[in-house]
Amino acid sequence: MRFKISCLSLVLVFAVGSITGKVEGEIKQIRGANPKDAERYVADKDGKFSCFDGKKKIPIAWVNDDYCDCEDGSDEPGTSAYARQVNDGVCEEECCDGSDEWSGLVRCENRCLELAKRDVEKELQKQETEKVGGAVKAQLVDKAKVLIVEKGIEVEKLEAEKQEAEKKFEENQKKKEELEKVENKIIEENKEKGR
């Protein structure tokens, strides 16, 4: 009898311990999962977990059950079912709190705060670069506006010179035609006299 109660207790503890995800609006941390992915481990209205690759849905109780149900391994972030990076003795940066090394083979420090600070510094650097880049862009836009105005004035001036040159060309063309008429008249008169 005592053995049956112990076995039943173990089964209950295992079952309760393996059920994770969202229970009545509460998000629970999944062992070995990146805290950023907590929302992805929330069961849908049917109590199912969607594999990250979108190929399959499984009962949420199957997450971290030490059996590979999803091709991409997203259902086993904290077990050795996909032994690629869990309990391998390596403290992975992706699992900054060390929850992927829960077996005790190694003790990983919680580096989440340190990594978060680094990410914030990178973001601040990016924002500063964007700010400086924005200022440079604004200067270039202002210079371009000035150049457009200057070139516009230059084009207007050249257009006026072109019109003046065309006017002079037409005047000279008329003078040429008049001189050719006079020349032709003189040639004709000389031909008539020379006969």
TrEMBL record:
CDD domains: LDLa. Keywords: Coiled coil, Disulfide bond, Signal. The keyword Iron-sulfur does not apply. It comes from the Eukaryota. Residues 1-25 form the signal peptide. InterPro entries: Gtb1-like, LDL_receptor-like_sf, LDrepeatLR_classA_rpt, PRKCSH_N. The keyword ATP-binding does not apply. One of its GO terms (cellular component) is glucosidase II complex. Residues 110-192 form a coiled coil. Residues 23-175 form the Glucosidase II beta subunit N-terminal domain. GO terms for biological process: N-glycan processing. This is Glucosidase 2 subunit beta. The lineage of its organism: Eukaryota, Fungi, Fungi incertae sedis, Zoopagomycota, Kickxellomycotina.
